[in-house]
Specification:
With about 240 residues, the chain is an alpha/beta fold. The chain has a single domain (about 15-60, about 70-239), classed as Vaccinia Virus protein VP39 (Rossmann fold). The chain has helices spanning about 1-10, 25-35, 35-40, 45-60, 75-85, 100-115, 155-165, 180-190, 210-215; strands at about 90-95, 115-120, 145-150, 165-170, 190-200, 220-225, 230-239. Strands 3-2-1-4-5-7-6 form a 7-stranded mixed beta sheet, sandwiched between helices. α6 (about 100-115) links the parallel β1 (about 90-95) and β2 (about 115-120). The termini are far apart. About 45% of the residues are buried.
Length: about 240
C-alpha cells in the first residue's frame, strides 16, 4: 500500500536545473568518465541490442500488461550501455524492469566487459502473479549474469545492497514519486563503489534526483530524452 499512498499524495515539484539537450550528454560522459564515448556507441554489441529490442517491441502482443512506453527508448539504453562500459562494474543494480529493455542494454554491456552481474528489482502487475512478462525481452544468452528479484524496492533493496556491495552503477526506474526516488537514492548511496554512477528516469517530475546529486555527485546533469518528453538524471560519484 506504500506505493498507492505515494501516488495519491505525490505532487509535481519540478527541479530548478534546466536539462541539457540530448546530444550534450555525450561530451559530458566522455569528460567525466575519461573514455572514448563515440567508440563505445559504435560497438556492434550495442547495435545488436537495439535491433533485438526494436523487433521485440514491434511484436509485442496486444494483451501485454505494460505499454510500449514502459520500455526504455534507445537513447536511454545507449547511456546505460556507455556508463556500464566506462565503469566496468562488478555489480549493477536497477529498480524497475518491465519487459527488460534497459536490462538488455545493461547485460549486453556486461557481456562486452566480460565481467560483472546485474541485479534487477521489479514489482509484477497485480494480476500477473507469476511475472512471466517481467524481463520478457532479455535473451537467454545474457541471463547468466542476471538475477531478478520480485517485490517492491522498499522491501527488497536494503537487504540486496548489503549482500552485493559495492555497486558500480545504480539505476532508478521504478515508482517515480518524490518520496520513493529520494529514498532509493539515499538507500543506495552508502553502498556505491568509490567510482560509480547513478542513472534515473523521469527526474522532471520532482527534485529528488537534483537534491541528491547536489549533495553527493562529483559530476551530474539532467538531460532531455529524444522520443519522449521526460528527463534523465545522470551522476558520477568519485570518493
Amino acid at each position: 500500500m506504500v506505493g498507492l499512498a505515494d501516488r495519491l499524495t505525490d505532487r509535481r515539484d519540478p527541479p530548478i536545473t534546466m536539462p541539457l539537450l540530448s546530444e550534450a550528454i555525450w561530451p559530458l560522459l566522455s569528460a567525466a568518465g575519461g573514455a572514448d564515448v563515440a567508440a563505445l556507441r559504435s560497438e556492434p554489441t550495442l547495435a545488436a541490442a537495439e535491433a533485438l529490442l526494436a523487433e521485440q517491441n514491434a511484436n509485442l502482443p496486444a494483451d501485454a500488461p505494460f505499454g510500449v512506453g514502459n520500455s526504455a527508448e534507445p537513447f536511454v539504453g545507449h547511456i546505460a550501455y556507455v556508463l556500464c562500459r566506462i565503469l566496468r562494474p562488478e555489480t549493477v543494480v536497477e529498480t524497475g524492469v518491465a519487459y527488460g529493455g534497459l536490462t538488455t542494454y545493461l547485460l549486453s554491456a556486461l557481456e562486452a566487459n566480460k565481467r560483472g552481474v546485474l541485479h534487477s528489482i521489479d514489482l509484477p502487475p497485480i494480476l500477473e502473479r507469476h511475472a512471466r512478462w517481467v524481463g520478457l525481452f532479455v535473451p537467454q544468452k545474457l541471463r547468466a549474469r542476471w538475477t531478478l528479484h520480485l517485490g517492491a524496492s522498499r522491501r527488497v533493496l536494503p537487504d540486496l545492497l548489503k549482500k552485493v556491495r559495492p555497486v558500480g552503477l545504480f539505476i532508478h526506474d521504478s515508482l517515480h514519486t518524490k518520496r520513493n526516488m529520494a529514498w532509493e537514492f539515499a538507500t543506495a548511496t552508502p553502498y556505491l563503489a568509490s567510482r560509480a554512477a547513478v542513472l534515473s528516469d523521469d527526474v522532471e517530475r520532482n527534485h529528488a534526483f537534483e537534491d541528491w546529486a547536489r549533495k553527493t555527485a562529483t559530476h551530474w546533469a539532467l538531460v532531455r530524452e529524444v522520443e519522449r518528453p521526460g528527463w534523465l538524471g545522470v551522476a558520477f560519484i568519485s570518493r
